[in-house]
Every structure is written in structure tokens, then in C-alpha cells.
# Entry
Amino acid sequence: MLTKRIIPCLDVKAGRVVKGVRFRDHRDAGDPVEMAAWYDAEGADELVFYDITASSDGRDIMLDVVERVADQVFIPLTVGGGLRTVADMHRMLKAGADKVSINTAAVENPDLIRQGAEQFGNQCIVLGLDAMRVAGAEPVRWEVRVRTGDGGGQSAGLDAIEWAARAAELGAGEIVANSMDADGTREGYDLELLSALSEATTVPLVASGGAGSPEHMYDAIDRGRADAVLAASIFHYRVHSIGEAKEYLASRGVPIRPLSAG
Amino acid sequence: MSRAGPTIAIIDYQAGNLRSVHKALEKVGARPFITSDARAIEDADGVVFPGQGACDSSMRQLKARGLVSPIRASIAGGKPFLGICLGLQLLLDGSDEGNEPGLGVLAGRVKALPRELGRKIPHMGWNRVELCGSHPVLAGIPNGSHFYFVHSFYADPDDTSVVAGTTSYGVEFCSAVAWDNAVAVQFHPEKSGAMGLRIYENFVRQITARVGA
# Structure
């Protein structure tokens, strides 16, 4: 049986891993290569890197980070942040990424998803969905936010659920659903958002934003029907280890890749 | 083992990224090189046949580069061989994915994973491999270990005695074959953490034992 994946997320700014709260106030959390190797040894099933620097200098630093990580860490890597063209995607894949995640560029040019999927396969193209609850909306709905690299970004004028379904039709092979309301709060994933996305799409769904405990991860998988759970601060600051999270999930009957037996 | 490690040809036929395969082989002490030259393949101590993508376009690339006979000859001659993902599927007679005949090293066909409601295709992620047989390249891998898969098709060899591992995803499919000095796996050992590296390590050890370097 396919296991549920646990994915540490490393936000990279100017070559360092940082972590903020609700996409702001970023603090230094370590060296990306060291952290990647540490997470690999701890049993991470995959790693996600987001380049949250917007400058072109930052782009080259990011390529270098991806190369160095991919040369030393032999688990799947997803890289996102600032990728705008098929050529950008190709550079990241050549540097050692297995998948690329796109958000703003896909909103502005949805055909980029189709082009990327055609050239590299659906399994390579991940939709990074930054979703924010619309205040006071009844029933609840979420809007897509773009340019969220460092700060809250802006509304894309799209409904998050409709956009995710469209992106999957265009060829996105996976959706990372990041709740901007929950990000960095450690108060739990947005389970309503995950459930709504599970209803609307059939591609693998990665829960992101709000992880504070292994119980939250279980809820995302059980109630949100997520295929994978992504977390940053609880792992970076050793609030919980990946091993603890896996042990807990296994005890609740979730299929996971155990640490010791490979 | 020679101080420099055995040479390993990684066959390049425009079917996916070879960087991780190259780095994994370096990590376990081999001297890998990426090539589409028949002579270089012949001269290497071992051969890795990787691949990701579509069967038809990949077979056409192999033909255009004159690599069909060198790959067959290399396996038939007993040179240690490791096929990965598409590098397993192409060993068969043909694939339901396309029309081009495969390399025909193994009798049988490549079939599509069954599409059913609720089961996502491609099969992507970590899944268990139930091992059978005792090929040295799969030595020391506990039965039921998890490896990383990304695929929509699987190899179904006629001769079940070559099946060295099976995995379950809607159907119980062959995820590893092994015979003589050849091994081919559906998963990606270069993306499967420590267990994956062990396969590369075993492969390099097998080559070293053979060439006596």
C-alpha cells in the first residue's frame, strides 16, 4: 500500500532556511544542505524547498542550493518559488529537483501548467495553492493569493477550490494546499479546506500550514483525506521529530514508511 | 576494490534526469559516466540503464543512437546491469503504452496499472517491495522495505522465475527482476534513501567482485 508522506518544508531566503508566521517575520532556521541531510536521516519521505527571495540573484543561489542538496540527499525534492517559465522549471529539474511547484505564474498563465506537464509529465508539476479564508463568507470559501513569497501577497480573484480543480485538469499532478490563515500558527491544518479540495480533485493532496502536533497530521489525513502532510516550524525547532510523527500515525493505523526497516 | 572504483556507464537516451543516479553511484564509490556511445558502454565495468518517460519515444531514441544491440549484448555477455523504472519496462517485448517493440531481453509485456475510482495514477510515492530470490544486488534489503515509485505502467514478464520483487497497488505487480548478472527495478533507488543506496552499493560490490579490481 502506498504510504502517507511526511514532508518537511524548507523556506529558503538568500541561501538560508527561514521560517515565519503567516508568511511574515522570517527567522533564520539553518543551512539548507545540513537540514536536508538531517531530515533524510530522520526519515523524511520527501523535501520541499520554497525560494522566497524574489531577486534574480536569489534565483542563482537557489539553483546552487538545489544542486548541493540533490547531490547529497537521495529522496524526492520539490522546488518552488518564482518559477515563471518552462525554462525555469527545466533548470530546477536539471539541478536535481524531482518536481516543481508553481503558484503566481500559473495563476497569471494557466497554460504554463499544461506546457510543463506536457514536457516533463504530470508527476513533475505541483500546484502551490496559497489559500486564504474570505472573511465573513457564508458558506465558507477561500481565495487564491499570489506573490506570497515574503508577506501576505495579494488576491488573485479566484476561488481556491475551483482553481485547484482547473489546475488538475490542466495537468498539475499534485496540489500543495497551504492555508495562509493557519501557516506557522501550529494550531492545526485547515481541515475544511482539505476536505473541499479532496472532493473537488483526484490528484494527490498535500496538507500545508498549521501543523502543531502529530494529531494534527492524523486529522489532515483522516478527515481532510490528504495524501501527505507538510510541516516546517515543528520540525525545524524540534518541537516534534519526524520519527515521533511517524510512530504516532502508525499507531493510529496510517500506512507510513517506517524509519528503521527502510 | 581498486582505489578508484569500477567504471559504470549510465546510458543517456534523453529519458529523464541522470544527475541523481550519477551522484548515488559516486557516493557508493564507483566511477560513473553518462554516455550514449556504444563503445564506452562496451568498455565499462557495469551498466546502468535508467529512464523516465514514454516507451515509444525512448525506444526511438535508443535506435537513433544505435544502442539497441550494445545493450542486448552487454546483458547477454554477463556484464553487471541495473535497469531503473523505464529501464526495466524497455527490457520486455513491448508495451501497452505504445506501438514500438521493446528490447525483447525478457519475454512479456508492459501493462497499465488498473484505473479504478479512488486510486490515483501515476502510482507515486513510497510503497513496499516483497522480495523473493537471493540476487546479490538485493542482498541485505529487509523484505517489505519501502522504495520510491513514480509510474503508470508495469512490467509483466512471462517467465516468473526472474521476478525478484513484487508490490501491490490495485494489482500485485512485478517491481524487480533479477537473473544472472542483471537486475532491473520499477522504483527509483536513487530517490529511496538509505535502502536505495544499498542497492547501488551492492551493485558496485558485484561489479568489483567480478572484475577483481
About this structure: The two ends of chain B are 5 Å apart (CA to CA). Residues 135 and 178 of chain B are 7 Å apart (CA to CA). Chain B has one domain: 7-211.
